[in-house]
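Below is a filled-in request sheet from our internal design queue. Each sheet records the structural input a requester submitted and the sequence that came back. We keep these sheets so that new team members can see what a complete request looks like end to end.

REQUESTER: design group, bay 2
PRIORITY: normal
MODE: inverse folding
CHAIN LENGTH: 231
BACKBONE (tokenized):
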């Protein structure tokens, strides 16, 4: 597995659990507002230091009993054919596994769920259907995203949907369209855009929406979900 980063402790990435986050290299999307271009763009990936898989698993062995879970994110973890083996090794050490995904690979998602290799899934919903490819920076087969959404809803696995709300790209009406699309669904989180390093540097100059506007959006979409919060 190509590991491009490791956050040794997170209190927020795995709801209710003390966890570590592992960042896998490579992604099939090119979201202009992506915060991790070093894990996505081939010209940046080549300069990204790798963490040997052995070091990662040695770390997990050391932290057994202290950490409860591992968050696997990227990049896009599901592009890696060896993801099931990777999850299995983590689970064998006694950890819960959370997968963060863009939802583009429902086949892999189904496999991981059927083999009971993951315990929690977060899918980033980038935009309403009509704007999906624009948000992802590549042509997206939206049917694949819908398949992933349905797989999660039909499974018993704990899951959430979430959207990074990006000024100049998303307006309240876009988030309402996403909410209607996902409905019925349990958990939906809104994340305000942070103008840090982005895949398209133009986005670094964009100011995040004021908190009040996020609250206004949250109020509008809350009726569609059991839980809807701003992160
Ligand atoms: S934000 Fe987009 S480009 Fe960046 S890792 Fe996620 S899916 Fe890939």
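RETURNED SEQUENCE:
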């Amino acid at each position: 597995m190509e590991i491009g980063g490791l956050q040794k402790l997170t209190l927020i990435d795995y709801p209710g659990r003390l966890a570590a986050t592992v960042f896998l290299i490579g992604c099939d999307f090119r979201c202009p507002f992506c915060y991790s271009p070093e894990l996505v763009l081939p010209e940046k990936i080549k300069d990204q230091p790798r963490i040997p898989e052995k070091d990662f698993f040695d770390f997990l062995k050391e932290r057994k009993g202290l950490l409860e879970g591992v968050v696997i994110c990227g990049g896009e973890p599901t592009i890696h054919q060896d993801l099931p083996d990777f999850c299995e090794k983590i689970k064998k050490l006694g950890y819960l596994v959370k997968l963060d995904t863009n939802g583009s690979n429902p086949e892999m998602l189904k496999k991981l769920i059927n083999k009971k290799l993951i315990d929690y899934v977060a899918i980033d919903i980038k935009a309403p259907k009509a704007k999906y490819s624009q948000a992802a920076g590549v042509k997206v087969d939206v049917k694949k995203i819908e398949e992933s959404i349905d797989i999660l809803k039909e499974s018993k696995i704990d899951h959430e949907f979430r959207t990074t709300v990006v000024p100049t790209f998303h307006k309240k009406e876009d988030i309402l369209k996403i909410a209607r699309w996902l409905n019925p669904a349990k958990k939906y989180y809104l994340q305000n855009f942070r103008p840090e390093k982005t895949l398209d540097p133009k986005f670094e100059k964009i100011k995040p929406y004021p908190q009040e506007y996020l609250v206004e959006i949250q109020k509008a979409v809350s009726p569609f979900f059991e839980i809807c919060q701003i992160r």
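SHEET NOTES:
- The helical segments are 42-45, 53-62, 83-92, 106-114, 132-136, 142-154, 172-182, 211-221.
- The first helix runs from residue 42 to 45.
FILED BY: M.R.
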